[in-house]
TrEMBL record:
NCBIfam families: LLM_duo_CE1759 (TIGR04037). InterPro entries: CE1759_FMN_reduct, Flavoprotein-like_sf, FMN_Rdtase-like_dom, NAD(P)H-dep_FMN_reductase. Residues 3-144 form the NADPH-dependent FMN reductase-like domain. The lineage of its organism: Bacteria, Bacillati, Actinomycetota, Actinomycetes, Propionibacteriales. It holds the Pfam family FMN_red. The keyword Oxidoreductase applies. This is NAD(P)H-dependent oxidoreductase. Keywords: Flavoprotein, FMN, Oxidoreductase. It comes from Arachnia rubra.
């Protein structure tokens, strides 16, 4: 059974970001779903950035995220991008920890005008981390949590999860080789150039 971890950066209680994360969890009956609320680890995340020391509970959350078969990530939209808490959590992960990980991108915001942040902010971040991002992202504005928008939101959640399941079906998580991981130091390149010039 695939393990899907839902990471959300909702700050308030209640929060629309947590509500969206809960809807994803409710729509995953066939998978082993676990929710990681970054709000519960906010101080520990800052401490880890400042000191390099990871508290035990935060370490457990990191282990759950990096050991998952797939992720659903949900962030509120602040200043047309992801929140600082959300970014800080992914900044403290070891390089390459999410390489090859299927990731479904989701976000919330006060208005649908922010919906493009999934493609111009979230997708580049997880592409840089080497994750395999699902094509369909889910953005939920305030009006999507009630009235006619709620049904459309459930449909978008279902469609995106079908794509995530397709990434998981019958496959083992692949960690692609990063061709830029082993970089020759610039000083070494300069020495080679100098020695080549000297021999001419």
């Amino acid at each position: 059974m695939s393990k899907v971890v839902i990471v959300h950066a909702g700050l308030r209680v209640p929060s629309s970001t947590k509500l969206l994360a809960d809807q994803f969890a409710a729509a995953l009956p066939g998978e082993q779903a676990e929710v990681v609320a970054l709000r519960d680890h906010a101080h520990a995340i800052v401490d880890a950035m400042l000191t390099g020391v990871v508290a035990e509970r935060l370490g457990d959350a990191i282990a759950a995220v990096t050991g998952a078969d797939a992720l659903v990530v949900v962030t509120p939209t602040f200043s047309a991008s992801f929140s600082g808490l959300f970014k800080s959590f992914f900044d403290i992960l070891e390089p390459g920890a999410l390489r090859g990980m299927p990731v479904l991108l989701a976000a919330t915001g006060g208005t649908v005008r922010h919906s493009l942040m999934i493609d111009y902010a979230l997708r580049p971040l997880f592409s840089y981390l080497g994750a395999q991002t699902v094509r369909t992202g889910v953005f939920a504005a305030t009006e999507d949590f009630g009235g006619p928008g709620a049904k459309a939101l459930r449909q978008r959640i279902g469609d995106s999860l079908k794509e995530l399941r397709a990434c998981l079906s019958g496959s083992v998580r692949q960690r692609p080789v990063d061709q830029f991981e082993q970089v020759t130091p610039f000083e070494q390149l300069l020495r080679r150039t100098g020695s080549a010039d000297a021999g001419q």
